[in-house]
Amino acid sequence: MSLRLAAYAVCIEDGRVLLARHISAQGESTWTLPGGRVEHAEDPLDTVIRVDVGLALARTAPPTGHTAPVPTGGLIQH
What we know:
By secondary structure, this protein is α+β, with helices and mostly antiparallel strands. It has one helix and six strands, in the order ββββββα.
């Protein structure tokens, strides 16, 4: 069994909780909190900040896929 360190965020807006849908290689679907693997020598808070950036990009991503830089720390409160 291999273990990995992961960090997840609880994102609440207007009484709603954000969940991420994970689909396995076998096609099974589960729901989880947004987050993911902590990279080598990365602070777990930095892992969660990637969620913050992803949320901002998801709200503003134009059809071309080109986005302006996103400041960090806009949505995450700790």
